[in-house]
Write a structure and sequence with these properties.
It is a single chain. This protein is α/β, with parallel strands linked by helices and 229 residues long. The chain is 21% helix and 30% strand. The chain is built from 4 helices and 12 strands, in the order βαβαβββββαβαββββ. The protein has a 6-stranded mixed beta sheet with strand order 5-4-3-2-1-12. A 6-stranded mixed beta sheet has the order 6-7-8-9-10-11, covered by helices on one side. β4 and β5 form a beta hairpin. The N and C termini lie close together (10 Å). 50% of the residues are buried. The model has no long low-confidence stretch (mean pLDDT 97).
């Protein structure tokens, strides 16, 4: 059984959740896949002082409507409850899927780290979730894989010069734990100092081979039908 997945790097207007939610909805409709993954803090940009949102925020409505129309589960980045969070959004609304554990830079000045790894079940697939620096910490992927996963999914925000880092981390996780890896990476301006960002979202096989990859531009997306390993 395969799972149709899109990793997307939508253009972002920092702080403007209304505009970004509309862009997210358009990306979901364009993708038309069962799972669509967005980058870290995709709804606000990498703006650590952006106000937190709630799971019932009415500004999420366009995303919920798009998921309803396409039978999609969207993994969306936003500040929620003092955490850098990954929301799971579908036709029924939004839930908190994961909170970033390994904070970097000045993130601890604004956020509290999550406390445990998380696995999300989708159509019989077990998705191990990560946000940016998490993927660079071997303990995180080990702890997540120990829960039993079919796919490791990471949402990241990196500088253009760190494209090789994205690849290195994905290859390490894939080959160490024998799972495919999906990474959604911000492209274009995301808020200082991430102006611009790396892009190059993509998919890696359990052997560490890139099977599909976007370019550096905002608006790019790639889709893959992931076979269960």
């Amino acid at each position: 059984m395969t799972l149709s997945i899109t990793v997307t790097q939508p253009p972002c207007i920092p702080y403007n959740i209304e505009a970004n939610a509309t862009t997210h909805a358009a990306a979901i409709r364009r993708a038309g896949t069962r799972l669509v993954v967005f980058p870290e803090l995709s709804l606000t940009g990498y703006t650590l002082d952006a106000p937190a949102i709630t799971l019932t925020d009415p500004r999420l409505a366009p995303i919920i409507e798009a998921c309803t129309a396409t039978n999609t589960l969207a993994l969306v980045g936003a500040p929620v409850g003092g955490h850098i969070a990954m929301l799971a959004i579908n036709a029924t609304g939004a839930t908190l899927a994961y909170s970033k554990i390994y904070l970097g830079g000045t993130e601890p000045d604004h956020f509290t780290p999550g406390t445990k790894p998380s696995v999300l079940d989708l159509d019989g697939w077990r998705l191990g979730l990560a946000i940016c620096k998490d993927a660079g910490v071997p303990q995180h992927s080990s702890d997540t894989a120990a829960l039993g996963i079919d796919l490791y999914v990471a949402a990241v925000c990196e500088l253009p010069e760190d494209v090789p880092v994205i690849d290195q981390r994905a290859r390490r996780i894939a080959t160490t734990h024998n799972v495919p890896v999906a990474i959604a990476s911000f492209a274009g301006p995301a808020g200082a100092p991430y102006n611009p960002t790396a892009g190059h979202s993509g998919f890696w096989t359990p052997e560490g081979t890139i099977t599909a990859q976007a370019g550096p531009d905002p608006g790019d997306m790639v889709t893959w039908s992931a076979p269960r390993s």
